[in-house]
Design a protein that fits this description.
Chains A, B: Pfam families: Aldedh. The structure is a homodimer of 429-residue chains. Chain A is of the alpha/beta class and 429 residues long. Chain A has 15 helices and 16 strands. Chain A has a seven-stranded parallel sheet, sandwiched between helices. At the A-B interface, helix 2, helix 11, helix 15, strand 13 and strand 16 of A face helix 2, helix 11, helix 15, strand 13 and strand 16 of B.
């Protein structure tokens, strides 16, 4: 069993660096076995893992109760305890998510392109797993199952490091998941849970270039920032989602209002939420738009021209244009035309998602071309910035970096490619 | 002029970090202008740059003579001086390479895929420039033109840091190139040459996360290793090319010999050269193959069974299986079947290029699937591992990392993508 192997490693190694190194080497070896399985076999193993999560719900909920009791004793905030809490319904949701990932089309083995060279060489680029992926996350125990499932579906080993608040829950979920995967033929060491809460283990993961191929942080800003600052291993990460919606002069008012309210208020705590609204000076219904936002309970911080529209608007400070509120708070600026909007976005966007609302197709195309963010939208709410909404199935994260993958990252982003070259004895002149 | 702007920056800033920061910010601003140009305009500007390189050949050759004189005075090795030296023919070659890059198909704007969602949203992934690319290179002054041309073709700004041996040559090439680009409408600051030889400037480039989007080191192992160890910016790099060719039992002897000789001896100093030959114990002509290599001047270091074939074979040490000779030296091992060959490669390959020679299609497909290197080949010489040979045109490098791009990296590897989302007023439920 995986837990036994892990236990043995923990017994003989004391420092986190050796521990992480030993687990990563086990994972790398197991990944070869995983990659050699057929796509169907990997999917079937994930279904078994989902079954195990449901079958072992008493043990998982018992472990979760321990975490909740410890969290209450430590005085964790109610929101944190809620993120931590599991029940039969949530556990069924976690199992369903694993099944959904199992049923996603497998990118591994896809042919990206084919080239026939004049000398007879035939070249193909084929998608292959990245290798071993490290996931560093916080209190939500569902990440243990979600991230492991995505990695395994695309043939990758996973090295999981969850938060200390969820330690018992994560162990129970990992144990059930692994039992299911092993029943399905996946090597036990393909999904490893780092068995220590020593924070130095995270540092060891970030430093494990050559042993871990990519790190995915899942959690709040401080976690992601720490990972990006310290990692020697490539990181798939997003920091802020300072997302703009620009209401162009030619925006249809009912659409503008519906999109602005949805982009800001549907869920304020997600990274795709709008944080700054830009209203064109030639848009005729600016006062109604600002009023509607305030009426729905949104705090509006505006520049002088926006304040002149409604006396409930609070003055915006310079910082507001660079702030991700993740709350029912919005900075609003009036801009003089498309160029001014593009300029504001170039200065303040975090490169996550920016949108224009207009019925002017030329302005829309210019915006979609010029704005250099991972996701650019025309006449749609920025809250659609999500792997599920993009039809990718579950996502491992939304990347605001520029290399490898941008925006919602799902299975394809967990693969790389290799070149296969087929010849008939060619030598290079 | 670019040189004037650079001079001004150098005058008012003393420390390399501020200097690099100021140049990178200029480059980022210029990149927006470059990205807004049409593909045809960027290509035309590169043709003008090539014309300028030829028109200004007296100044460039004069600058090069200064570098050569300084190099001789410093006692640079003859091979180094040869890499540094320019003449009319080499300069014409550099200009021709710039024209060839100008004429490559432009990846920017290509649609990677399109998705129509059930709610009416239309998603497209479009290739866009990465942004600002830092190139850190050594003594070959042609890299100044080659790397700048590749960056500009794909809409990227370039921040160039060449070696101190080529400082005058690089400045002259950069000045001519920039004059041509500016004549063609490219913003002058889109291609910057770091105007100091202070080594701290390289450190500042490697640390410039958020200002430089990717670093490409071009040079020897120690340069690449330093860049990979110190960079906070993503690096596109390859270290060793420890490339294997496996002669399977079912290899056709004439083909096996031709490929082995070519893979090792055509050019021994390139990263695609074979460094280890694996001969199957059931291959009937092993002695002839080893003898042919030695007859052609190759030093063969073999294991016991290879030594038994020819008394000119030198004993291989454990280190030999992990050594990139870049010389007429080869390590040769006898292996017992395909599985043993795959095991040896898994332990010792650097993940660059590995090849099998066989007429057994099943064995070949197994090799192409199982070997996890950037390039895997069947019945071809590993010396084909090259962007030009792959039909990509010029290459910025060969990547042995796993993310973003693998193997020969040309224009496509200098782009990323963004998601364009077109709606009709959709809000998320």
């Amino acid at each position: 069993m995986n837990t036994t192997a892990t236990q043995q490693i923990q017994d003989v190694t004391t420092d986190p660096e050796s521990l992480v190194g030993a687990l990563a080497r086990q994972a790398r070896a197991a990944q070869r076995g995983l990659a050699a399985m057929s796509s169907e076999a990997r999917a079937a193993a994930l279904h078994r893992a989902a079954d195990r999560l449901e079958a072992e719900s008493p043990a998982i909920l018992e472990a979760n109760a321990k975490d909740l009791a410890a969290g209450e004793a430590r005085g964790l905030a109610k929101a944190m305890l809620d993120r931590l809490a599991l029940d039969e319904t949530r556990l069924a949701g976690i199992a369903a998510a694993v099944r959904a990932v199992a049923d996603l089309p497998d990118p591994v083995g896809q042919v990206i392109d084919t080239t026939d060279r004049p000398n007879g060489l035939k070249l193909q680029r084929i998608r292959v797993p990245i290798g071993t992926i490290g996931i560093v996350y916080e209190s939500r125990p569902n990440v243990t199952a979600d991230a492991a499932a995505l990695c395994v579906r695309a043939g990758n080993a996973a090295l999981l490091r969850g938060g200390s608040e969820a330690v018992h829950s994560n162990r129970a979920i990992h144990a059930a998941l692994t039992r299911g995967l092993v029943e399905g033929g996946v090597p036990a060491e393909a999904v490893q849970l780092i068995p220590t809460q020593d924070r130095a283990a995270v540092g060891a993961m970030l430093a494990a270039a050559g042993l871990i191929d990519m790190i995915v942080p899942r959690g709040g800003k401080s976690l992601v920032a720490r990972v990006q600052a310290d990692a020697r291993v490539p990181v798939l990460a997003h920091l802020d989602g300072i997302n703009h919606t620009y209401i162009h002069a030619a925006a249809e008012p009912a659409m503008a209002e519906a999109i602005a309210l949805n982009a800001k208020l549907r869920r304020t705590g997600i990274c795709g939420a709008m944080e700054t609204l830009l209203i064109d000076a030639d848009y005729a219904r600016a006062a109604e738009l600002v009023g509607a936002l305030i009426d729905k309970g949104c705090e509006v911080r505006g520049d002088e021209r926006i304040r002149a529209l409604d006396d409930r608007v609070i003055p915006a400070s310079a910082n507001d244009w660079d702030t991700e509120y993740l709350d029912a708070v919005l900075s609003v600026a009036m801009v003089d035309g498309l160029e001014a909007a593009l300029g504001h976005i170039a200065r303040h966007s975090s490169g996550h998602t920016d949108a224009i609302v207009t019925s002017d197709e030329v302005a829309a195309e210019r915006f979609l071309t010029q704005v250099d963010s991972a996701i650019v939208m025309h006449n749609a709410s920025s809250q659609f910035a999500d792997g599920g909404e993009f039809g990718l199935g579950a996502e491992i994260g939304i990347a605001t970096g520029r290399l490898h993958a941008r925006g919602p990252v799902a299975l394809e982003g967990l693969t790389t490619y290799k070149w296969q070259v087929r010849g008939q004895g060619q030598t290079r002149p």
